[in-house]
Amino acid sequence: MIATSPSFEALSTYAEAHSKQGDQALVALSAECQSLSSKSCGPIVGRLLTLLVSTSQSKMCLELGTWLGYSALCIAEGLPSDGRLVTCDSDIRTHACLERFAQHPKGRQIELRVQSALSLLDTWTEPLDFVFLDADKANYPLYYERLIPLIKVGGLLVIDNMLWSGAVLNPQHATDRAIDTLNKTIVQDARVDNLLLTIRDGLQVVRKCSA
């Protein structure tokens, strides 16, 4: 008798059930985000962000693409008491995050900027320990080239949606090609080390090795 392989969804559910969760506010917010969009980063990615920030002892963090604030709170949860996260999004709905941040113990360490990622990067000069990139995908290659010089040697850049529902295997549209181009750029970039994870919609974990 040949055993049937479990579905990816079943394995994901099992993984979530056997992973430490954040506090109840984060659990509720994760459920809300996932009900609104299948592209939400989800609790597995959220917890990974917390662990990466915590274990790397990152203090100055940047997030491009805030949306409902779930990933921002996950990043903040991993910060030390003197750490700081700046998160930005041009979507006016992001204003609703201010209340969520105010209600969370780590929310005081988050600074929300309602502006485009490119306008923020045009004036940003502070060295970064950790970046989470989840903004408009068509500009991913441009964001990458702007971010790498700003990240400290040893710092981390985590990029979401890097498998783009499998479209990277046969790119047909501008966004598909942008993500595929960035994946190819990263693996050939001598300044960084990386691992493309098949978690949810694909997660690039990039560590800057040299200037």
Structure description:
By secondary structure, the chain is of the alpha/beta class. It is built from 8 helices and 7 strands, in the order αααβαβαβαβαβαββ. It has helices at 8-17, 24-36, 42-55, 70-77, 97-103, 117-123, 140-147, 174-188; strands at 60-64, 84-88, 110-113, 128-133, 151-160, 192-197, 203-208. Strands 3-2-1-4-5-7-6 form a 7-stranded mixed β-sheet, with helices on both faces. The longest helix has 15 residues, at 174-188. 42% of the residues are buried.
- What is the average per-residue confidence, as pLDDT, rounded to a whole number? 91
Major β-sheet strand ordering: 3-2-1-4-5-7-6
Biggest sheet, open or closed, and with what strands and sense?
Answer: 7 strands, mixed
- State Rg: 17 Å
Number of strands: 7
Number of helical elements: 8
Structural class category? alpha/beta
Structure summary:
This protein has eight helices and seven strands. It is α/β, with parallel strands linked by helices and 211 residues long.
